[in-house]
């Protein structure tokens, strides 16, 4: 459904509320990642400052999409954010980033369930596109934090597996 506005505002309210929680999370991302880029210290600064700025930009991109969607559904996009986790330590920043991306995956997944209950196919697709990007964030930050022991991490070729 929902080609134009087949749902009333009351029907859309639970979705609008949930999207606003997501928007709050994305606004948090804009500030948390920007702050991380500003203050990250140490030898890895040169690598991580641009990465965190890129993530801040991604959060803003998502905030923009979600804010527009809330307005289209007749709601008022929030200007609030959650608490920003701060650190100068790269590992801690990466752990914060993983927690942030994992929460985003949970929130978009729950929103998709809600949109499915409302039989709102286009909203499901809209949210799925963003969810895929959030999952990429989880995958990437998980890899950055992973330290597989050498033997276990050894990449086996087809030949060596057969031997
Ligand atoms: Fe996001």
From TrEMBL:
The keyword 4Fe-4S does not apply. The keyword Iron applies. Gene3D superfamilies: 1.20.1260.10. Residues 9-152 form the Ferritin-like diiron domain. Keywords: Iron, Iron storage. Pfam families: Ferritin. InterPro entries: Ferritin-like, Ferritin-like_diiron, Ferritin-like_SF, Ferritin_DPS_dom. This is Ferritin-like diiron domain-containing protein.
